[in-house]
Design brief:
about 425 residues, alpha/beta, three-stranded antiparallel beta sheet, 17 helices, globular
Length: about 425
């Protein structure tokens, strides 16, 4: 597909002309299980994401999943599709129901899960992900997920395994992984910046919030500045655009959204309703443009490890202190033992225990991506309704753990 920019009806200069808002600077950490008079909507979201998802009508949620194109994405390529954990259908039903209550949007969760595979003409592959890059492999302590989503990940295999070897010799790679524990592998993978899934290494919950200052009343069309790529963050931005927000997608000229290289229909569904800006963060003018956009934003949506935007001179905590709603989507959250790790949807699912067992297999297509995007849209809408700034810390692996069978073994092998 073409990587060129599309013409937009609304001029991109508008947000840059918006004057900086005057805000107070109070900021407090909130126990995710507590309630607060100041943020009742967000507190409610935190409450139900702290327990296994329970749809109002579980039977209806299951039937909707089973009737969808997502239902055929789990199981072996040469066999019938397999059923997935009940939490997947229930979680999607909960999220879409709350999103409708907050914004009026009618969204079909299973359709979102299947959207990329349908656009790309992909199908189930058993122990290989639908997208073809991630693989379930037996380590010394149990099943792990090796995700070779980028050329650098393949090149890093010898360092991951501590062996001089041809990284394309798949039988040798499997043998080497079988001699190492999940704990050993995850430590090396995170140091190397490789996406690697190990059950039991996900955060306990999909969302943690830190509440900031109260905010002046938001206008009829809140401004959302999105620094997101691929699936989860762009889906959140797309849903917010459908809910009436003005969404500005910001891309670096050096690293445009990788989804541009995928199916055009899928990229358009996630980004077609947004305005687009390309910036060069290596220049003073580019950095100033980014800062002006962030200063004007009611909501900032990003999907980078915390240090990435810090290189641009932007600090989430400072913006939240000024009343901004800041949604941060990462693989493992902004804090915790794997906060520096890289994750994509399929390996994050395995880290959260969201997989098929006996025999092992992937659950549909990178389910944590669309689920986290949905949850981010819900959390942002709740924070906007509460009228408070908030740092919304969302993790792909935490979302997987929320959906997974609560009886699944979460011991790190």
């Amino acid at each position: 597909m073409s990587g060129g920019r599309r013409s937009r009806a609304s001029p991109i200069g508008d947000p840059l002309a918006t004057p900086a808002r005057s805000r107070s600077t109070a900021m407090t950490s909130v126990d995710p299980m507590s309630r607060s008079d100041s943020t009742p909507m967000l507190d409610e979201v935190l409450r139900w994401t702290g327990e296994p998802p329970r749809a109002d009508d579980p039977g209806s949620a299951t039937r909707r999943w089973e009737a969808s194109q997502a239902a055929v994405l789990s199981g072996p390529a040469n066999g019938p599709p397999r059923r997935v954990p009940e939490g997947v259908a229930n979680g999607l039903a909960v999220l879409t129901s709350v999103l409708e209550a907050l914004s009026g949007l009618l969204v079909d969760g299973p359709t979102l899960v299947a959207e990329r595979a349908v656009a790309a003409g992909l199908s189930r592959r058993g122990t290989t992900s639908v997208g073809g890059d991630a693989h379930l492999v037996e380590a010394a302590g149990g099943i792990v997920c090796l995700n070779l989503a980028r050329p650098d990940d393949v090149a890093s295999i010898p360092a991951l395994l501590g062996a001089t070897m041809d990284p394309t010799d798949w039988p040798a790679v499997r043998r080497a992984i079988s001699l190492l524990t999940g704990a050993e592998l995850v430590k090396r993978a995170d140091l190397l910046g490789m996406p690697f899934g190990v059950p039991g290494t996900a955060p306990d919950r999909p969302l943690v919030a830190t509440i900031g200052a109260s905010r002046p009343e938001v206008g009829k069309q809140p401004l959302v500045v999105e620094f997101g790529s691929l699936w989860a963050a762009p889906l959140c931005g797309a849903l917010l655009a459908r809910a009436g927000c003005r969404v500005v997608k910001v891309e670096s000229v050096h690293r445009p959204d990788g989804a541009r290289r995928g199916p055009a229909a899928f990229f358009e569904s996630l980004n077609g309703a947004k305005e687009e800006v390309s910036v060069d963060p290596s220049t003073a003018d580019g950095l100033e443009r980014v800062r002006m956009l962030v200063d004007a934003a009611d909501v900032v949506l990003e999907a980078s490890r915390p240090r990435a935007l810090a290189h641009w001179g932007i600090a989430a905590a400072e913006e939240v202190q000024r009343g901004t709603v800041w949604a941060s989507i990462t693989g493992y959250g902004r804090t915790g033992p794997r906060s520096g790790g890289v994750a994509f949807g399929d390996d994050a699912a395995v880290s959260g225990g969201l997989m098929l067992h006996d025999p092992p297999g992937f659950v549909a297509d990178a389910v944590p991506d669309p689920v986290t995007g949905l949850l981010a849209a819900v959390a942002v809408q709740a924070a906007l309704a509460d009228g408070a700034g908030a740092l919304l810390d969302l993790s792909l692996a935490g979302a997987a753990r929320w959906l997974a069978d609560p009886e699944a073994d979460m011991t790190v092998g």
